[in-house]
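To whoever is on call:

I kicked off a structure prediction for a single chain this morning and the downstream step that reads the tokens threw a length-mismatch warning. I double-checked the sequence; it's 389 residues and nothing unusual in it as far as I can see. Pasting both halves so you can look.
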Amino acid sequence: MKFALYVVGLLFLSQEAVAYKKVHRPKVKETTSEEVKPWIRTIYESQVEIVTPTVIAGVTFSGRPAPTPDPLEPWVSLKKDGTPQTIKPELKNGRTKKGRPEYSTYFKTLSVMTYSFEDLKAHNMDPNDVHEEEVYVDEDDTYISLNPIIRCTPDRYFYKGVAKDIPSEPFCTPRENSMWKVGKTYFVSWYTRFLEDEHSGEVVDKVRIHLSYVKEKASEKGYHKRDIPATFFSSEWVKNADGIYPIEIDEDWLQGQYERRVVVSVQPFNVPDDEFNPLLNGVLLYIMMGSKVGKTTKEEWALIDAGISDEKWYYVAITIPTIVVVVVVFLYFFLHVNGRYRDFSDVTKATLGKKHRVLGKISDMKRFKKMKNHKYDELPSFKKPSKQH
């Protein structure tokens, strides 16, 4: 019975540890008086346009550039799951650390220029010679320059698959097995030059982003082709040159579940819907419930501050009585079934033997050796007084 009480006590202690709830600490709200306003610029030397900035997930797109370039101006990178992260460059020992990324020739077009003697008039060139030279032509950055987020290039690819041996082309974000939580916004980024028309060799101008459910058996994970039951999200056709698209996770996409396995894919404009395979170059990830979406009432905050609003308390209230009953019933039947196999005779005899052991003579005991013994008849006695008549 003591063992049963000990087990029950441990269960109570373990449940109390799970039910611990920290006191709610309100987060400090950051406010700013700066408003994003439209601004005017001239493009292609003579065309005037009004630019309207847009703020997505805290990132300002199409914002007014600084009057003079600043190498220490902050820029925005992307974490593995596609969330934005502001990077502040630093100047150390005359060199800029964490500066804006360089893209080498990834977004330039290679062109071969042919020059005759009449074109160059080179002193070491024969009049009948022709000189060919490879030249990289810069892309039109009229609108690309308004994007403050780092661009996707092949040197930022990752490796996916079970053996991590499959390049993630054309994606840089999100990484495989990333967790996308409800209510948050994530950026899908891809290398725009990867999506070329196989016939003309030209980069496609429009793409569409898809999110599709993935259905797979436990025994088939990572080894066989997965079934795509449905594409539940498709963006509008967007400019491929942007190379980035924001997605805000909707709770309805979970269809009542806590977590769903999905694949994100990008469809070029030149590939028909019936020929597009989301798994061909897609990235597998998870969408899941995050923090509670909605405004918490004063009553709920009061319960949180009291430490009793966590759902774990309800689980503890239901679980403790159930576990106690199960343990007691189990111990009862265990003792009842195994009663005939219990034999405590050896323990009982040993205990009784200790209680009835022979102590020996008192005179031989150390603590009584110095005591002077008297004969029984020498000991004081009490005589009952006789009655007087």
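Update from on-call: the warning came from a stale cache, not from the record. Cleared it. Sanity check on the structure: The chain has five helices and 21 strands.
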